[in-house]
């Protein structure tokens, strides 16, 4: 796998100058050939392929597959037993809330978790949904948009509070600009790694033409403390868009993961909007771990990111609801608890 050459070696969102012959430029949505080159469309990984369709060959090997919009596969009966076990009781909800509220890392005041994902994947909605659970009502703490371009433009830190008026818990969720799908959108790989290493201050506005650097970034931290660094990265993917993500997205994500791993940072993935791809889950969220469609989407997300499916957890964000729901709370809290298990490893063991 190619190594980054630092500031000018790789870009998620912008074409960067390079000596001739010009290399292929990577974006989150497609490969772009240098001017005069021959463009070849990347394969699209289809959820129906994961479900075992015999009519569509493997998307990773067939270069002739065309881009397809998401469609529900033919509904089949859910699994007789859940493929993951999650208790949906009020006792479980209370236990998860207590575990999260009492969490305190041993080496820092709070664990910082960076959310990374394509535009519109649900990063900001997840932050607002988690805070809604503890508020007992749906709130929009992180500004949420519904545009094709990233609504979040700057780096923002959200300290999760279990009770109003009290000190925040030991968890900080970090929201940033969505990874772009065109030549001039999204932060560069250099910017993402600078955030993880703690060089970038809160409030920094990302620009594809102005990378983070010591001389031009206001508040740049030359020697960040452990408190200012990221302790876990959570990738966020949209289950509805799994079939429209291009094959080049996989290589981009896996290259990013390689660099993050070199920094010793643990990683997890959140699969949002699972209720929109599975009617049974939409009717009753407790069906999420019985759903073949959700299971297939999780396996596909794991393959896209190059990680084990055990590190991918489904979530249902609050969107149109006015009141919180017990079962949705449990699913969200379970995801946060999964993240905190990895931040605990960082706190106790340090970077792996």
Give the arrangement of secondary structure elements.
Elements: E1 25-26, E2 31-32, H1 47-50, H2 90-101, E3 111-116, H3 123-135, E4 156-159, E5 171-175, H4 189-196, E6 232-238, H5 247-262, E7 266-272, H6 274-277, H7 279-283, H8 292-305, E8 312-314, H9 326-349
Parallel strand pairs: 3-5, 3-6, 6-7, 7-8
Antiparallel strand pairs: 1-2, 4-5
Helix pairs in contact: 2-9, 3-9
Region (Disordered): 24-60
InterPro entries: P-loop_NTPase
Biased composition (Basic and acidic residues): 29-43
Question: Can you walk through the features of this model?
Answer:
The chain is 28% helix and 10% strand. The protein has 352 residues and is of the alpha/beta class. The chain has one domain (90-349): P-loop containing nucleotide triphosphate hydrolases (Rossmann fold), CATH 3.40.50. It has a 6-stranded mixed beta sheet with strand order 4-5-3-6-7-8, sandwiched between helices. Helix 2 (90-101) packs parallel to helix 9 (326-349) and helix 3 (123-135) packs across helix 9. The chain is globular and about 60 Å long. Residues 1-11 and 13-72 have low confidence and may be disordered.
